[in-house]
Amino acid sequence: MISDTSPSSLDVAREAYRAISLYAPNREPCAVDLSDNTNLWGVPPAAERAVREAALASFTRYPSLYAPALKGAMAAYLGVEPGMIVTGCGSDDVLDSAIRAFAEPGERVAVPEPSFAMVPIFARMNALEPVAVPLTPTFDLDADAMLATGARVIYLCSPNNPTGNAMSRAAIERVVERAPGVVILDEAYAEFAGANCLELLGRSERLLVVRTMSKAFGLAGLRVGYAAGAPALVAEVEKSRGPYKVHALAERAALAALTDAESMRWVRERVAEVRENRARLVDELTTLGYETVPSDANFVLVSIDNAQDVARAMRAAGVAVRPFDIGLRVTVGPWGSMEELLRVLADARAAE
Questions:
Q1: pLDDT class for 351, splitting at 50, 70, 90?
Q2: Residue 322 forms beta bridges with which residues?
Q3: Averaged over 5-10, what is the pLDDT?
Q4: Are 278 and 324 members of one domain?
Q5: Where does residue 50 fall: left (phi above 0), alpha (psi -120 to 50 degrees), or beta otherwise?
Q6: Is residue 6 over pLDDT 70?
Q7: Same domain (yes/no): 269, 256
Q8: Of the residues 226, 260, 294, the one at which a domain ends
Q9: Where is the domain boundary, 260, 288, 310?
Q10: What dihedral do alpha carbons 228, 208, 269, 27 form, nearest 10°?
Q11: Is the N or C terminus of the chain more exposed, i.e. has fewer CB atoms within 10 Å?
């Protein structure tokens, strides 16, 4: 029995943790799930074969310490040197490790608002102060406002989640050139944009470009993230994240996807289909009277005032989307799922 004099959980918890809530979006199963921006077409053929053919030893032994073979494949994919790559258990792990590596407790982490909701949580988990910097009225990055925070770490996301638009190159360059500390640029959706900022790695040794295998490569369930930066920079992230963070099956599948020509073609074809369906979906939504934010990602933000109510009604009808204060975020998938989305969205609005 626990003694009445035992401290409560709040008494023993770190002060920084008291303001943290669990990340808890509604994950109840749904017939058509368009809520988490994953690849709804499946996985690259070589990745599926790699998992199916994995030897039992993959389960009984630890994976490689820091995934050197996978780093090499990721470096080749991005066109950088292997020493410029760090891996992690999803891009979340890389972001958390980077924030911890480059800021002392009490220092600031500047974050666009709205943007990836986990970053302020990672800041608090590491006893740092997240500072929200509103985007411009057109959802672009406010470079001067970000710089004015004096933050030790500045987080950028392009294309941005949940708005979907790429940040202007000029604004990103201004932040990278003038930031007092480290700039973390999250490019989780870069494949769908057709453009990226990898070239800026040659201009700054304090820029970390974060990528993921969860979106275009369809490996969200295996949790493989990575980042590129100057060798000295990624070495500090690697210290922070520790060894064995990419498990054996995940490493095997990701390596297969990146090094198999058929699978890379599969990824390119799926990306092209996302772009085609994204444009078609926006046209349909516009015809129905909805406004959308121009998207460079594999999702579209639909401007709706009562997004929470509409999302609940849609989930009850079998289609899951993600509500935000500024609208509904909808993952772009095969066209059949888009037709179901349009039907259920229309029904939900009609029932208001």
A1: low
A2: 329
A3: 54
A4: yes
A5: alpha
A6: no
A7: no
A8: 260
A9: 260
A10: 120
A11: N
- Please state the domain count of the chain: 2
Task: Report DSSP state, residue 35.
Answer: S
Specify the 3-state DSSP secondary structure of 155: strand
Of 152, 113, 117, residue with least CA distance to 133? 113
DSSP 292: E
Q: Which residues contact 32 (CB under 8 A, 6 or more apart)?
A: 318, 319, 320, 337, 340, 341, 344
Reported residue count of the chain is 352
63: preceding bond cis by omega (within 30 degrees) = no
Whether residue 232 is found in the same domain as residue 337: no
Residue predicted with more confidence, 57 or 31: 31
Q: Tell me, what DSSP letter sits at residue 325?
A: T
Which residue reads 């973390």 in tokens? 184
Considering only CA atoms, which of 124, 64, 103, 97 is closest in space to residue 210? 97
Distance (Å, whole) CA 268 – CA 192: 9
Residues 18 and 54 in one domain: no
- Residue 4 within a domain: no
Q: What strand order describes the sheet that includes 322-324?
A: 291-292, 299-303, 327-331, 322-324
Please give the distance of CA 16 from its chain centroid, rounded to a whole number.
Answer: 24
Half-sphere exposure of 262 (CA within 13 A, CB side): 8
Establish whether the linkage from the previous residue to 114 is cis, with ω within 30° of 0.
Answer: yes
Query: Does pLDDT of 302 surpass 90?
Result: yes
Residue 178: both structure tokens together:
């003038």
Alpha-carbon distance of 95 to 208, in angstroms, equals: 10
Residue 137 lies in domain: 45-260
Distance of CA 45 to the CA centre of its chain: 23
**Cα 172 to Cα 191: distance, rounded to the nearest angstrom:** 18
| Residue 184 scores a pLDDT above 90 | yes
C-alpha dihedral (145, 151, 154, 160), degrees to nearest 10: -40
- Note the pLDDT of residue 2: 44
**Residue 165 resides in a domain:** yes
Percent of the chain topping pLDDT 70: 95
Q: Name residue 226's beta-bridge partners.
A: 87, 211
Query: pLDDT tier at 56 (50, 70, 90 boundaries)?
Result: confident
Q: Is residue 209 part of a domain?
A: yes
User: How high does pLDDT run on average in the chain?
Assistant: 93
